[in-house]
């Protein structure tokens, strides 16, 4: 069989692979990307939420839009993307076998970059093989790519960012999420993600896990129970839910099989069994590189930068750029990547018990246990202020790398400062013009516009559910804990292109509830 030749072979057309291909192609390298899926972009096209970070990290842009941007860049650079192409083997001398339309091709590259991503983990429990037990990523694929509801009544196992984000998207798809469950004693993902779920009324059960999935030929129910510090079930703590679907979000494992097949040096880490490579993804075999989740699980924003770093390293390896130019570009990208690896959720802080923010403010223990900041805790954070005129109230209480709220406000009402992980501050002496851009721009949906009057208050909140409420509708306002507080009337609904599908709903509530009302439900819900 004839051997084909490629200059750079990239395996995987996800955020890391496409970013690496774009960077390499921008230096003149002819790049071919193979991906087993019918559509390029990897996980990005399932991600309908807005990204965190700063402008350089494509913050406040929805994942699928970032995927479209990457594909357009790749086309402009002349990158060849071959779809429905399953790479079956990676062998010596940079040779791969790839199945395309039921035909096996042998291809040899001058360099190969592996960006195969990661696969979902599963956890065993009685009944875990029943139809209706699915990975959270599978549920996301069904909803956001194929527009199919994964189920009607769903229990989510796992409160990391994947479990939290997918739970919110299940609500957006019209599913009933009955509970979020996690064997860990505290929520693992961003507090803002948990809070936007808690205020809809979904309960969190920490230090709990699934004991049994019930049903004969499909899931009809689930029983959870509390676990002790050794993760053993505590008798008498069982809780039953009628559900038709169980979503599992218990982490990811790097898909490094191809690299291992070729004899690349591997290492066992807390993030999985990954290739032992340098900062630019160069492995123990010259000319073989790795980028993205295959080299260690992180967010898509990090994977894109890692891909760029690998792309410039390939350019130097193939002689398309100098070592000096490579080091300068690597330094620039490394600084951008390092800014994403700061804050409470930084890799260096994994496993640590953090009790204070960077500003020495005690963290919200209620947020970690129940998914929302308690009313008697919120006052201590700098984004929460009182003011007679309309003003932003920012309920972002953890140090995470994100700052679009600061750039969204052109009146200086919000300040983060020079450090992207600093807690946002609502500037008391500023003059808010009620444009709503800060509310719509916040990826964590943690900003509200509040207007305080003697007898009533107006609360403008982000809203991403259909159908939208209409002006004049009457319903109830819910607190941060998802409990009904009071009656509420919708006085304004704004949905403009600049808000990027985040509607701004303004509800009128009694003055006594203006600091607590954070969600709206129609009277018939």
From TrEMBL:
One of its GO terms (molecular function) is iron-sulfur cluster binding. This is 4Fe-4S ferredoxin-type domain-containing protein. Gene3D superfamilies: 3.30.70.20, FAD/NAD(P)-binding domain (3.50.50.60). Keywords: Iron, Iron-sulfur, Metal-binding, Oxidoreductase. SUPFAM superfamilies: 4Fe-4S ferredoxins, FAD/NAD(P)-binding domain. Coiled coil: none annotated. PANTHER family: ANAEROBIC GLYCEROL-3-PHOSPHATE DEHYDROGENASE SUBUNIT B. It comes from Intestinibaculum porci. It comes from the Bacteria. Residues 423-452 form the 4Fe-4S ferredoxin-type domain. InterPro entries: 4Fe4S_Fe-S-bd, 4Fe4S_Fe_S_CS, FAD/NAD-bd_sf, FAD/NAD-binding_dom, Metab_Enz_Cyan_OpOx_G3PDH.
